[in-house]
């Protein structure tokens, strides 16, 4: 099975990389030696000869799924502005195609554009081809970007599209799931707001199928270049995270925080919360400070709970209030 071979090869490419040597001065704050990020790629993702909105949005969605959208910020901004202008005009190319309309709404809203869910009132269960799995999936994803409890249109879309997708999954259980149905299964099990971006990027790179994402209009080599960039970007970010965690572990030992018998060692928890939410490489200082602050807060909390005598607690309180 060629698809299985491709997935296995990508998983091997995404194996945990060897940590690069880090230089850190534990007396400092921002101390991890930065690694060079992947160079800005010279890959033409959005064909200038085509203004097909569905193709443009599909490409943008792919770049976000495999974690490399920031490398194409200028092109993406142009696509978003173009799509938004057509959205405001209620362009038929968007509004009359269920999948395009749902994807445009989701991507525009997720990127900060002012779009009203009232524009989706024409998308009803009766208006959708029940076998159009891709459009149903886009509709289900739309229901997850609600910004108000009063967006009843999105609630309704999520209810019936989710039910239809579950029916499709049940009817396909006796057969091997296609990449699209695996994506459906994942979307139903794990709403996007419950996932970590980097783990999603890894999964999407491993399982990605350009045919399922309607990207056959791009040359084969360009598709491979995009995946290669996704692999390189992911591995680079992992090395940066390993450097930062090594620095933090050295800081704990040099500060002798690990020798405090009453203190819980929660450094990895705090670093994970930072690394999982602050992705760009240039936010290294922020991730390190976040983790250090969490570790110190835990020590102080444990000191007050079980570690300190009454006199020590009074002295510390007085010191803080000075």
How would you summarize the topology of this molecule?
Elements: H1 2-13, H2 53-65, H3 73-88, H4 92-95, H5 98-110, H6 133-142, H7 152-172, H8 179-189, H9 197-207, H10 220-254, H11 267-275, H12 284-307, H13 310-321
Helix pairs in contact: 1-9, 2-3, 2-5, 5-6, 6-7, 6-8, 7-8, 9-10, 10-11, 10-12, 11-12
**Main sheet?**
none
Helix content: 55-70%
CATH topology of the largest domain: Glycosyltransferase
Quickly count the domains.
2
Query: What count of helical segments does DSSP give?
Result: 13
Strand content: under 5%
* Cα distance spanning the termini: 70 Å
Determine the CATH superfamily of the largest domain: Terpene synthase, N-terminal domain
Rg on CA atoms, Å: 24 Å
**Number of DSSP-assigned strands:** 0
Mean model confidence by pLDDT: 84
Order of helices and strands: HHHHHHHHHHHHH
What CATH architecture of the largest domain would you give?
Answer: Alpha/alpha barrel
Shape annotation: elongated
The assembly state of the depicted protein chains is: single chain
Q: Enumerate the spans where pLDDT stays under 50 for 5 or more consecutive residues.
A: 20-37
SSE class: mainly alpha
Query: What is the name of the CATH class of the largest domain?
Result: Mainly Alpha
């Amino acid at each position: 099975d060629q698809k299985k071979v491709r997935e296995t090869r990508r998983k091997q490419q995404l194996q945990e990389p060897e940590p690069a040597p880090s230089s850190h001065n534990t007396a400092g704050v921002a101390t991890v030696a930065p690694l060079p990020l992947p160079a800005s790629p010279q890959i033409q993702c959005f064909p200038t000869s085509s203004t097909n909105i569905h193709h443009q949005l599909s490409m943008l969605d792919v770049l976000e799924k495999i974690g490399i959208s920031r490398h194409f910020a200028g092109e993406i901004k142009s696509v978003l502005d173009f799509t938004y202008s057509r959205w405001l005009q209620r362009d038929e190319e968007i509004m009359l195609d269920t999948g395009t309309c749902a994807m445009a709404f989701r991507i525009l809203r997720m990127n900060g554009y002012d779009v009203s869910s009232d524009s989706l009132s024409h998308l009803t269960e009766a208006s959708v081809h029940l076998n159009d799995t891709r459009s149903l999936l886009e509709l289900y994803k739309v229901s997850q970007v609600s910004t108000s409890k009063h967006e009843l249109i999105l609630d309704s879309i999520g209810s019936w599209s989710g039910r239809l997708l579950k029916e499709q999954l049940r009817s396909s259980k006796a057969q091997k799931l296609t990449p699209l149905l695996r994506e459906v299964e994942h979307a139903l099990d794990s709403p996007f707001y419950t996932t970590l971006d980097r783990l999603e990027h890894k999964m999407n790179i491993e399982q990605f199928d350009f045919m399922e994402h309607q990207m056959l209009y791009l040359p084969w080599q360009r598709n491979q270049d995009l995946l290669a960039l996704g692999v390189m970007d992911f591995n680079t970010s992992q090395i940066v995270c390993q450097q930062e965690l090594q620095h933090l572990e050295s800081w704990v030992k040099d500060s002798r925080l690990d020798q405090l018998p009453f203190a819980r060692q929660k450094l990895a928890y705090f670093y994970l919360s930072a690394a999982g939410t602050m992705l760009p490489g240039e936010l290294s200082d922020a991730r390190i400070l976040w983790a250090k602050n969490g570790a110190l807060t835990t020590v102080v909390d444990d000191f007050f709970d079980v570690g300190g005598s009454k006199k020590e607690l009074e002295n510390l309180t007085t010191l803080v209030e000075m």
